Amino acid sequence: MTDCDEIPADHPRHDSLVTRHRIEAGVDAGITSRQGLIAQGRGEAFDYLLGEETIPSADRAARAAAATLLAAEHPVLSVNGNVAALVPEAMVQLAETVDADLEVNLFNRTEKRMAAIESHLEDHGAREVKGRNADARIPGLSHERAKVDADGIKAADVVLVPLEDGDRAQALSEMGKTEIVIDLNPLSRSAQVAAIPIIDNILRAVPRITDHARDLAKAGPEAIEQARTDFDAAEALDAAEARIRDGL
Amino acid sequence: MTDCDEIPADHPRHDSLVTRHRIEAGVDAGITSRQGLIAQGRGEAFDYLLGEETIPSADRAARAAAATLLAAEHPVLSVNGNVAALVPEAMVQLAETVDADLEVNLFNRTEKRMAAIESHLEDHGAREVKGRNADARIPGLSHERAKVDADGIKAADVVLVPLEDGDRAQALSEMGKTEIVIDLNPLSRSAQVAAIPIIDNILRAVPRITDHARDLAKAGPEAIEQARTDFDAAEALDAAEARIRDGL
Questions:
Q1: Which of A125, B50, B76, B108 has the most CB atoms in a 10 Å sphere around its CB?
Q2: 3-state secondary structure chain B
Q3: Do the chains contact at A41 and B46, CB–CB below 8 Å?
Q4: Is ipTM over 0.85?
């Protein structure tokens, strides 16, 4: 995270400033799209309303996500342009911690962006990045938007899809995947269809899932099972909505 | 609005789709900046929370704005990149209706963007566009951000600043201008410092000010005075905040 060394960790708007900085760098690197910039703005507004902090229900969701990834047969972490721009290192660390694949998966897919994101992840320590084969399809989506790897997302039992479009999130859910979504809008379709919606800034959420995964891996199978069953998605969405109301 | 003929007026997300479409076209035309795209996203989030409709207090604010522009000695409508991209025709019509100047005024000012926005406004019917002379300054702002026309914003008694940055809005207010702000976040500094904050989507707000202005011009000086005195800025901000809370 050398790009953000100038912003002190205790700066009251630290996450917001780091996020903005990385998204702008993502545009320069050909990673972040126009839609990505607009999505970033939507996220800023919701994070502002949440108080720019991880609420307790989001922490429980991150713990449930960690448990679910650890218990999965074949977990895959989906990476789009904003995810790659914002948390490349944290995604690589999470993939290693829970033994998951990383797969680049773009709503606006071009070969150039696919390549830029793949090499950006590799620059941040990724050893293998899936998504270029595109030898399988998500049913119910138009051609370009449906492309996935047969031995990646197509074969996964658990998928982490941070900052995902609603159509895609719904289609993945209909494929029977256990879907973990990170999204700042508790009313978005992505958050609504997820088995585990984490209503938090991705900058805070991804390292938190990794921390919980390390913790749970040490604690053992019973703790993992407990974290999974303790979580209630509807309750988490309600808590986030209430915080946005009260936070105003 | 020929660019958006394909989107039916009764489409439930009409404003959102038109807005997105125009902002993207604004990028292609060199009018919308990266910051503008992010700001667009923030606006989308707040408009979503407002229910994507003009609330009664925003209509009263639009009426007070119309009255204040009609009663002004020298009203100026400030235009930035997003304003030009989103409502060029509506701004030209409002300027004609209330006999105001149009002045291009950019937070990220470059000669190229100034020229692109000026010609975009001219393409939509503007006869005179101020802002290129830049022979005066707003006190308290850094050099580039302070530039205004001596016979434009500098000399104005009433300024409409839609989608304005907080620093600029505050500095204009400190110059003693009567400031009308259009902003979707009732808690933003721009909205807070405005004499008349209109908490609404600019796509809905600008034509509405024009409609009220036509109406009030016919109704005469007493109606104009009434619309100005009837308006309470703090009440309007509270109503928008309450709507965002309850509307969820």
A1: B76
A2: CHHHCCCCCCCCCHHHHHHHHHHHHHHHCCCCCHHHHHHHHHHHHHHHHHCCCCCHHHHHHHHHHHHHHHHCCCEEEEECHHHHHHCHHHHHHHHHHHCCEEEECCCCCCHHHHHHHHHHHHHCCCCCCECCCCCEECCCCCHHHHEECCCCHHHCCEEEEECCCHHHHHHHHHCCCEEEEECCCCCCHHHHHCCEEECCCHHHHHHHHHHHHHHHHHHCHHHHHHHHHHCCHHHHHHHHHHHHHHHC
A3: no
A4: no
> What is the number of structural domains in chain A?
1
Considering chain A, what percentage of its residues have pLDDT values greater than 90? 69
**Do the domain assignments include residue B14?**
no
> What's B132's domain CATH number?
3.40.50.12640
Instruction: Quote the domain boundaries for residue A73.
Output: 56-246
Answer yes or no: is B28 within a domain. no
Does B48 fall in a domain?
no
Taking the Cβ of residue A43 and every Cβ of chain B, the question of whether any pair is shorter than 8 Å is answered with yes
Question: pLDDT tens digits, residue range A180-239?
Answer: 999 999 989 999 999 999 999 999 999 999 999 999 999 999 999 999 999 999 999 999
Consult the annotation and say whether A211 binds a ligand: no
- State the pTM of this model: 0.85
Provide the pLDDT for residue B85. 95
